[in-house]
Amino acid sequence: MSNREAFLSKVRQAADQGRQYRVHTQEVPPDIGYIGVGSDLVQRFAEEVTTVGGQAFVVANATAARIKLRDLLTEAKATSAVCWQHELLDRLTIHDVLTDSQIEWLDANRLQALPPAEQRQRLLNCDVGITSCEAAIAETGTLMMGSRLGRERLASLIAPIHIAIIERAQIVPDLIDAFNLLHDRGTAAMPSNVTFITGPSKTGDIELQLTTGVHGPGIWQVIIIDEPVR
Known about the structure:
8 helices
């Protein structure tokens, strides 16, 4: 068998396997409407994060969130991190947590003070990316990320571990609510781009082999704070 024939044979085999996973639709009864996500958005969001391959940690308050962040950094044996500049992260004083844990951290201000070549190298060496989000979607366990100065998309992509810290007030029931949130904030507050993160980075090839962590973080962790952070 020639190389060409062997290649086409693999394509046919993979296509046959893929047909086994086709979605079969069925008629929806007319009395079925939107079911919703339940009364506890925190619980539903945490369940969905786990379902899509992430790790959800529900904590009671800001103090517990700082302790959990410190524990996760210790577990990861992290020595450097790239962080968003975000109101919630400021209220949590995560820079103090990082400094106390002897972790070198970078944010937009610190990066801008470095030469471009050094910026790139320092970012590539980061063990962890720490962000918050624009909104968290309970129905799918998704983070809606808005990019702007200080909240660069790279922070959630470049490191092998992405830790997102959110609070209950950021969680919305579904995607429609998330878009309504952006609309209500107006065009002046619109991010430069909006992306959605659901689980760790995954990719699949033609042979239906799923690989995690190739194009982004292989570990995705979300700390969810139940009480408002003052």
